[in-house]
Design brief:
The chain has 316 residues and is an alpha+beta fold. The chain has helices spanning 18-25, 29-37, 63-75, 95-100, 116-119, 122-132, 137-147, 159-167, 169-181, 204-216, 251-267, 269-276, 283-297, 299-310; strands spanning 43-49, 55-61, 107-112, 185-189, 192-197, 227-230, 236-237, 240-241, 248-249. It has 14 helices and 9 strands. The chain is globular and about 60 Å long.
């Protein structure tokens, strides 16, 4: 991972030792030591459905560990600048702005990074705290411990998204430099990589070179989700359809939310969850997130969904 240099890092808090960290965050010293020694018991595990089928395991920290991670994110990680080509988990950027960059292009290439968070191991995370932030070895180990699980980034910690962007800095730099040489557009939204431009350049040879760069940067491609999208077919960027200078969400995604709200209102939340075999204790937040995503693209539809959501009796 490339050293960003001091100009990319704003002022960070001084952390002398574990006791000092416990005081900074407001967590009892003995509790912090127990978290560092028995981290697994401070996580809750559940599953959510993926858009393309299957289940994604979510590892949510408990209240105290989440407080520690929030401090690390807000006071340390958010002060490290990330690539201008990163559009996910970045203030004042979003999925819509990412898609707009690729409007009216002859060809689009979509690449998905497989197991994006888990691919980022604690060695990379330690590098961020030790080499970039200049914390001493012991504190860097402690901070790394608090934001990783079983040796890699967990799905569900508030620190994982921003760490992933920092860890992908070298990847963004290499891919954007290559794209610029070929007069192509490059963006990355979390684990979704998109190139767009001339169909004469975006071809299998180009893909092979991109695959080599991604592999060299320590990431893995999900080949099943690699897609070339011509202007004469359906062009899609991070789940948004962008043909004819118009951006919209797949109708199937909207239809599934409409159906979900219908069944909840008809049968109640508990029965609906039992019928669908939901184990997600944050199901309410998960559904709200999907609704707000729709609202960000299609305001009228999203507001209608939001009104239905707000009228749900979550005790039923």
């Amino acid at each position: 991972m490339e050293d960003l240099g001091n100009e990319f890092i704003k002022k960070l808090p001084v952390i002398l030792d574990i006791y000092h960290l416990s005081n900074l965050v407001g967590v009892k010293y003995n509790l912090l030591k127990d978290i560092l020694s028995n981290k697994d018991k401070y996580y809750h595990f559940f599953y959510i459905s993926k858009k393309m089928g299957g289940k994604r395991k979510i590892e949510a920290p408990n209240e105290v560990l989440a407080l520690l991670q929030k401090y690390i994110k807000n006071e340390i990680l958010d002060n490290i600048l990330v690539s201008e080509y990163a559009f996910g988990f970045v203030k004042e950027k979003n999925i819509l702005l990412n898609a707009k960059r690729h409007l009216n292009q002859e060809m689009i290439l979509n690449i998905d990074l497989e197991n994006f968070f888990p691919t980022i191991k604690e060695k990379r995370v330690f590098y961020i705290f030790y080499k970039l932030c200049k914390y001493d070895y012991h504190i860097s180990k402690v901070l790394t411990n608090l934001v990783t699980l079983q040796g890699r980034l967990p799905q569900g910690a508030c620190t994982s998204p921003v760490i992933s962007n920092i860890a992908a800095y070298k990847l963004d730099k290499r891919l954007s430099t290559y794209a610029k040489k070929l007069n192509l557009i490059y963006t990355r939204y979390a684990d979704d990589i998109t190139f767009s431009g001339s169909k004469k350049i975006i071809n299998n040879f180009f893909l092979k070179n991109i695959q080599n760069i991604i592999k060299d940067c320590g990431f893995v491609i999900n080949d099943k989700k690699t897609r070339f999208c011509s202007q004469y077919g359906r062009q899609e960027v991070t789940g948004l359809i962008i043909n004819d200078n118009y951006i919209h969400i797949n109708k199937k995604y909207i239809r599934e939310i409409r159906q979900e709200l219908y069944y909840i209102n008809k049968f109640g939340v508990s029965n609906h969850r039992n019928n669908k075999d939901f184990s997600n204790m944050y199901y309410r937040e998960h559904l709200l997130g999907k609704i707000l995503f729709v609202k960000s693209i299609h305001q009228d539809i999203g507001l209608n969904f939001l009104n239905q959501f707000q009228n749900i009796d979550w005790e039923k």
